[in-house]
Amino acid sequence: MKHIISKKSFRLVGSSKVPGDKSISHRALIITSMCIGQSKIKGLLESEDVFATMNALKKLGVKIEKSNEYWFVNGVGLFGFKEPIDYLDLGNSGTGARLILGAIMGSNIIANLKGDISLSKRPMDRILTPLKMMGAKLISSNNEKLPLTIKGPKEVFPINYSSKISSAQIKSSILLSGLAASGTTVFKEPNESRNHTEKMLSYLGANIQSKTLKFGGYRVELKGNPVLKGGNIFVPCDPSSAAFLIVAAVICPESKIELHNIMINKGRDGLFKTLKEMGAKIKIFNKKNIGGEEIATIIAEYSQLKGISVSSKRAPSMIDEYPILSIAASCANGKTTMHGISELRVKESDRIKIMSNGLVKAGVKTIEKPESLTIYGSEVAGGCTIDSELDHRIAMSFLILGLISKKPIKVLRPSTIQSSFPNFFKTMIELGANFVKA
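-> structure tokens emitted (438 positions)
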């Protein structure tokens, strides 16, 4: 499939199933691999990114098998990863690469990691710097990017680390390494990033405490050498994937869709709050707590949106949703400015630049700055071709924009969508989207 053409559509209607959360799926596989005993995972996202993490863990000696709707992981403990014979290929998965670097620290092994073209451009120094402080030896021929070689130390040192940016990947890598340390590892960040790692570690037996600091910031303390025991993990539906369907319903006339078991916990609900501030008709109900994660049913319907200013403080809770928020902003009355989003420049692509350039192609006025993006809502002309740049969220975002543009939008290299939302095309067609494969 070389491209998908998205044409003007009306009345997206129905109830759809959204795939399992990608962030939790990666963590479920990695953390249960560090447990003693067998774990059972339900709802795992079966996508290219998650399978890349799974295959890397198998090369590290972890037995992972599927039976019916469950995945079973036989953990090897904190120090039990085996030295892999060949490269651990993480494909496009930045989460998989960064978390595995931390997880294998206690096993005193040498491992070589690589990724695809996109992942090999993404910075790893933000992870490598603290891991070196904890004793790791690292070699990279690509300016501290993949491919690289890591040698775990004989002894992992606990550290007290303050990150300049709020990042769940940095936090998780340090905490997973800290599990093998003799002593207490402390991590601090400016604002609380998604906390799935803390919740899952606590559930499986780690001694971990976190708190919001009095004058701002977030702090986590982890005592090393816990006994993690296997357990049952439920993976809720991914709010980042649900975001595409929700925005599609909000901007397409006469639309109304219903989604079930969507995660809505504090660290992941930023887009829902932002859309409501813009005037979106979004109803969240049937709230439940499963395994420490909040889930709910969401109904979204067509709405008249208004432009707003989105604070930088909201970025940690919606860092993956800015591309699709940009699509909503394109349909809003007035201008929308997203502040403090420089982190988007080092995702699978430079998402600020690509979204801005793509929107201009489609007839939408934008102002791009190093840490912000301003979008002036208007009638969307479309009639353009967008290269996904091998970024799944860019591809899906412009396919959604094509649903309301005057002329079709063609998105190149859409196969990258398989990394996070394998059934996206089928799901959108069933709701009523006018997509054509070519």
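The first strand starts at residue 3 and ends at 7.
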